[in-house]
Design goal:
Layout: E1 4-7, E2 10-12, E3 18-24, E4 33-39, E5 46-52, E6 57-59, E7 67-72, E8 77-82, E9 91-99, E10 102-106, E11 110-114
């Protein structure tokens, strides 16, 4: 299991962009998936984007065409590029690594606030 740390959150105006980073303490090549999830106050945590070990990518319908997930195995880092941000994207964003036959690893989260 690896330790994960997110960064890159902050306050941005509607229509703006942010890039979140998830730095892992070890190799992310062994993870089944690397995921970004988010949680807004009073709402359930939702899966935003996921990338598998072989590079297959999925997005939530609400972020398709605006968010891009990628990973750098050399840097043990996963990114979430967020463009055309909307106030509804305001949430705490979490990074997660999942493994076959083992518990997932979670980061501590980073706050993203989209507001004018």
């Amino acid at each position: 299991q690896v330790q994960l740390m997110e960064s890159g959150g902050g306050l941005v105006q509607p229509g703006g962009s942010l890039r979140l980073s998830c730095a892992a303490s070890g190799g992310i090549w062994s993870a089944n998936t690397m995921d970004w999830l988010r949680q807004s106050p009073g709402k359930q945590r939702e899966l935003v984007a996921s990338i598998t070990s072989d590079g297959h990518i999925n997005y939530a319908d609400s972020v398709k065409g605006r968010f891009t997930i990628s990973k750098d195995l050399d840097q043990n880092t996963v990114y979430l590029q967020m463009d055309s941000l909307k106030p509804v994207d305001t949430a705490v964003y979490y990074c997660r690594a999942t493994y076959y036959g083992g518990p997932p690893s979670w980061g501590q989260g980073t706050q993203v606030t989209v507001s004018s």
